[in-house]
Every structure is written in C-alpha cells, then in structure tokens.
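Postdoc handover notes: sequence design on the structure in folder B. Input tokens:
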C-alpha cells in the first residue's frame, strides 16, 4: 500500500499504533513495526531521561524499522512541563522517526524553539486533535501531519464530540498535510473507510491490546473480545479531562461522583495511573478505568501483530475493490 504516510516513514502499511500508558513498551512497539506498521513507545512510561533513552535503544535492538514516540501534554500528577521538554529533547537527540503529540501543542506548551529543534533533527511531528481549528494551528506551528481523533476513540477525545466520519474529511479539506484517522478503527473495513474519507493512514490502540505481544494480563485481552461497542462511557467531563473507558465498577463510581459535583482532587484516587497499571498486571477489570474506544466491539480474537497488520491490509484492499466494483 502506498500513501503519504508509507512514503514519509518508509513503512509497508499505513497502520500506526496509538499511545497507551504502561502498554506501549519496546516489545509491542517493535512487533508492530516489524509487522510492517508503525509501533509506538509512550514516553510517559519512563519518568527519567535515562529510562526513556534505554527504552528507545531497547526498541532499536528489537527492530530496525521506524517507530513513533508519544508525548502527552496534559495536566498530570506525575509529569510536569520540564519533563515534557525533556521528552522532546531526548527524541530530538535520538532522532526518532516521529512524534505523536497529544494534548497541548508543542509551541504553546514548551515553546516554538522545541518545534525548530525537532525539525532540525528530522523528527516528524503529528498532533492528535479533535477539531479543525486545532489541526490548522498545528500545521501553522510547523507540524508535519495530523491525527484526526473522533469521539469514538479511547483515551481523551476532545469535548467537541465530533465523530470520525465527519472529522476526517473536514480536516483533510482544511490542511495541506497527511491526515491519519483515529477512533473506531479496528479492522480492514474501517481502515478502507478512512482511506475513502481522504486519510493517508489509520491509528489505533484498543485493537493492539488484544494481540499476543501486548504485555497485559490475559483477562484483559479476553475482556476486550467479549465487550461490545456500546459498553464504553465518557468520564471526567465535569473536570475538563474527558476520557472514554470501558464500562466497569470504577467507571460507575466515577460517574456517580461527578453527578455529586466531585472535583479532580476527589476523583484522582479512582483514576490514578497506578491503579491502571495494577489492572493491567493483575487482570482485575474493575479496579481502574480501562481507556478503550468504541472499536472494542470489533475486537474478536487475539492474533499476533504480524497476523493483525497483514489481515488489516488485505481486508482494506478487498473493501476498496468491492466499492470500486460498485461503480
């Protein structure tokens, strides 16, 4: 498959893994890149400069293919502005292939000099956005591409609540840069649909959790296979940190607390990253918000990354051929 994304990074398929706290580690990242897609190493997993460099080097030992690094610039208990700047500097010095930036744009959060630093290092910058206005700003600031993230996505979709079906073509029309569709992508048919909407690639995270290489408890993988598309909820809307998670006991508790007007300080014990890490390790599906998208309804097996990426590409080609045949 040839798109602007495959040409930009020299990869076989325009299939990119999205950031996942605790799960986007060297093993999963390398497996996806080796499969012909684009793996993701989530910087937030690594609190120090040494740990991030070690993770990048470990990934490079496992694959000679390009991969992304995610830096999420959102309010956090453990990660502050100086750490965000450190992540960007390390990625520039290590000359990683690309950056997925979530939350605030680099120029506003860290300063335009960090955009220039990354451009000089030839690190391709993609901003994950949920609106046309944010996409336009990112390209003006010097980013190389856009991740158009619809409300269907897991994690933290923008509170504009625009769907992938509408957002992708709107952003494609608004910017002169490659656009990657995020949200609702979990099989080759949805990938084919994104390409029909004008995207140059797709990004997904939920689907990569249910793979053999993902280092998460088997109970979690089996839970994803069992869940349906309507079994997610939007939480933390009242505190300006909207997130989509699979519906479970702790999500019910968070929603109930929000109806009572509880603020961030009261909610943190329920949504803390340490609880999420414990859930991933123990397989207890009710102790933390599992930030997954509506695409969970399309997850029905637990293949290897190679099997999944290859299947995606074949399904997308078949779907596009079917549509062409209709004409």
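Designed sequence:
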């Amino acid at each position: 498959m040839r798109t602007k994304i495959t040409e930009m990074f020299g990869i076989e398929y325009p299939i990119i893994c999205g950031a996942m706290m605790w799960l986007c580690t060297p093993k999963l990242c390398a497996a996806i890149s080796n499969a012909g897609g684009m793996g993701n190493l989530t910087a937030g997993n690594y609190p120090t400069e040494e740990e991030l460099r070690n993770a990048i080097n470990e990934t490079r030992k496992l694959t000679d293919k390009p991969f992304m690094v995610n830096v999420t610039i959102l309010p956090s208990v453990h990660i502050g502005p100086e750490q965000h700047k450190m992540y960007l500097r390390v990625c520039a010095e290590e000359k990683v292939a690309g950056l997925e930036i979530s939350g605030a744009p680099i120029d506003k959060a860290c300063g335009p000099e960090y955009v220039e630093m990354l451009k000089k290092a030839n690190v391709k910058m993609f901003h994950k956005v949920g609106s046309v206005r944010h996409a336009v700003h990112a390209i003006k600031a010097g980013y190389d591409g856009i991740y158009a993230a619809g409300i269907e996505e897991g994690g933290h979709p923008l509170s504009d609540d625009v769907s992938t079906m509408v957002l992708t073509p709107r952003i494609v029309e608004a910017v002169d840069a490659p656009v990657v569709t995020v949200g609702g992508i979990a099989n080759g048919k949805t990938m084919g649909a994104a390409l029909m909407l004008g995207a140059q690639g797709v990004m997904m995270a939920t689907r990569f959790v249910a793979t053999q290489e993902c280092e998460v408890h088997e109970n979690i993988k089996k839970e994803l296979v069992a869940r349906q598309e309507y079994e997610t909820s939007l939480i933390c809307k009242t505190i300006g940190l909207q997130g989509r998670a699979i519906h479970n006991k702790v999500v019910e508790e968070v929603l109930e607390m929000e109806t009572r007007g509880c603020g961030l300080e009261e909610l943190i014990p329920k949504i803390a990253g340490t609880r999420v890490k414990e859930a991933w390790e123990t397989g207890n599906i009710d102790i933390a918000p599992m930030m997954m998208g509506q695409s969970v309804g399309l997850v029905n097996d637990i293949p290897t990354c190679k099997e999944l990426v290859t299947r995606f590409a074949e399904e997308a080609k078949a779907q596009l051929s079917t549509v062409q045949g209709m004409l």
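Context for whoever picks this up: The chain has a mean pLDDT of 96. Don't rerun without checking with the PI first.
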